[in-house]
Amino acid sequence: MAFDGITVSSLISEFNKTLDEGRIYKIAQTESDELMITFKANKSQYKMLLSVNASLPLAYFTNEAKPSPMTAPNFCMLLRKHINSGRIVSIKQPGLERIIDFELQHLDEMGDVCIKHLIIELMGKHSNIIFCDDKNMIVDSIKHISSVMSSVRQVLPGREYFIPDTMNKENPLTVDRTAFDTVIYSKACNLSKAIYTSLTGISPVIAEEICYRANVDSSLPATVIEDGAKDLIWSNFAKIIGIVKSGEFSPVIYEKDGSYVEFNAFPLLCYADCNEISFDSMSELLESFYKKKNESTRIKQKSFDLRRIVNTALEKDNKKYALQLKQLKDTEKKDKYKVYGELLTTYGYSVEAGSKECECENFYTGETVKIPLDPTLTPIENAKKYFDKYAKLKRTGDALSSIVLETKASIDYLETISVSLDIAQNETDLKEIKNELVQTGYIKKRSTNKKERFKSKPLHFISTGGYHMYVGKNNIQNEELTFKVANGGDWWFHSKAFPGSHVIVKTNGDELPDIVFEEAARLAAHFSKGSGQEKVEIDYTMRKNVKKVAGAMPGFVIYHTNYSMAISPDISGIEEIK
After folding, report:
1. Reduced to 3 states, what is the DSSP secondary structure of residue 430?
2. Please, is 166 exposed, middle or buried when counting C-beta atoms within 10 Å of its C-beta (0-12, 13-18, 19+)?
3. What pairs with residue 275 in β-bridges?
4. Tell me: the pLDDT tens digits for 122-155?
5. Are 145 and 153 in contact (CB under 8 A)?
6. Phi (first) and psi of residue 440, to 5 degrees
7. Where are the alpha helices (DSSP H) in 424-486?
């Protein structure tokens, strides 16, 4: 997921086509490191987001509005003063750097025409928005970089602006074959790394794509590449750079198992195993890609407290369970103590006073046993002591048997909550999980007069042949799907060994094709704790065979008649209904 020089080149091509002869209409600083600029061009308005967040630098057109602070920050006020209503002269990219240079023409206080540059550097933690005059002197920047922060370049008002060349990389737009071979094949690293560390704006993904198209192993040392392979690498590199130079971009996102894997300004052959989603513009792609990524990040952040509660309870229960199993194993000695008591009661008359052990025949097995004795007690008192030990261990064993089952049930239940948190897609899903944890006592209920009403929908898929398949996102949904949505003739699927979602297939009274059973099983495998396995064993049966366990945690069921299959958790190709 690289915001590389090729992505920037695609954006600049889009910006130039859209904003030809355009003007700046509004400038807002929506975050400390983010601008929202509205342009007027071709009788339309266009909003552009410019973010230089260290972890997520971005630039693209957007239709979404963001609130601005009541009082504009100083940098925003400076831009409004100088370039509000400024006309776009050009939008350029130096080399294939991750830099966008807006050249703007405006009138100064005296009415004279002036040129300014708004430069957006999209370079990870070094990202910045820098405002310069026509002589390349910095007027101001959204981030001030002093000599304490960087010894290479200070970004401060009054300093000269320049692009630091610290990597000694070649410009891929102008590099010739000789320079290409010299800089890449002399590096003591693998071929892919040699490519992206030698050329400006080339990401690891593009380096891998070049190697893939050339059918050369990217993990080979760059110094051992043969001449024939070098020709293929150069040829495929030249084709990719030809796309950049011509501006013939076709933005695509690659998706697998419902998640975005990668994006690029043109199709990548090395992602042939993923679903390809095409976009009309790079702005649309970036907005879609990072919106989904931001939603996922936000849900993970909001689920942090719930995960902490679940993980703490799981850790506590696992420790308790291990201790209970050890104690239960210790109670297995009880029958030995009972036999000792019975033998001493039978043979005690022959034991001499003060003896430390008694050797006698076990009348149950015929073997000779040695029974340790307390020399200060009589044989009958020793027998009573062993009977007491037996009784105590029996009571402990009886009590532990049910306690161990309760602890194991709690662990299994918390594992299902963990799966539910992994599946959660929005805040309503998290509220339902929290509500469930309140109902089951893992979160203390707070007294409040306000009644929250929220209900999320289960995941909905369509099988080959058009049969509806539903996946529960939490235990409450699992129970509703199984006992309210499904009827006795529908099919029910669940992972055999792992906690996971209930999957229901509505049959409409039909006999299902084999492909539908396989697709439903893949869903059950994917939405389970075993989703990382190569194959997951899935149990499936008709809904009428599934029974609710009285007094059990939500979502826990039993079934005695079922079929099983081992299947991959890959759900690519199964259509989801949003």
Report:
1. helix
2. exposed
3. 255
4. 988 899 999 999 999 999 999 999 988 888 889 9
5. yes
6. -90, 0
7. 427-439, 475-480
